[in-house]
Amino acid sequence: MTAKTSREGRILYNTRFECWEIWDAYSRPAVVQCGESFEMKVGDAFLPCRIELDSDWVVYFHSTRFHLHPSVSYWIRV
């Protein structure tokens, strides 16, 4: 059995297209879609989460909602 390979990168907000993009994990930026799951770095740990668009962009960690700030980049693992 082979281990799943993960890539680390960042999500950054693209103000021109009003969407979040994954940078550094792939050869070029990838748009993040609603409902997409990945792991976000919180402190020293990567926690599984899902991104959604409400009135603002949010990620859900189990039952906890976290609002994303467009001027901040977040470390993720995909």
Keywords:
8 strands; globular; 78 residues; eight-stranded antiparallel sheet; mainly beta; Thrombin, subunit H; 0% helix
Itemize the secondary structure elements and their pairings.
Blueprint: E1 8-14, E2 19-23, E3 30-31, E4 37-42, E5 45-53, E6 57-61, E7 64-67, E8 74-77
Antiparallel strand pairs: 1-2, 1-8, 2-3, 4-5, 4-8, 5-6, 6-7
Descriptive report:
Helices cover 0% and strands 54% of the residues. It is an all-beta fold. The protein has one domain (8-77): Beta Barrel (Thrombin, subunit H). Strands 3-2-1-8-4-5-6-7 form an eight-stranded antiparallel beta sheet, with no helix packed on it.
Estimate the global geometry from the Cα principal axes: globular
> What is the CATH first-level class name?
Mainly Beta
State which percent range the strand residues make up: over 45%
CATH topology term: Thrombin, subunit H
Oligomerization category of the chains in this entry: single chain
Kindly give the count of domains.
1
Q: Specify the biggest β-sheet.
A: 8 strands, antiparallel
Alpha-carbon Rg, integer: 12 Å
| Unreliable spans | none
Task: Write the CATH architecture name.
Answer: Beta Barrel
Helix/strand-derived class? mainly beta
The succession of helices and strands, N to C, reads: EEEEEEEE
Q: Helical stretch count? A: 0
Domain DUF5348: 9-78
Protein name: DUF5348 domain-containing protein
Pfam families: DUF5348 (PF17295)
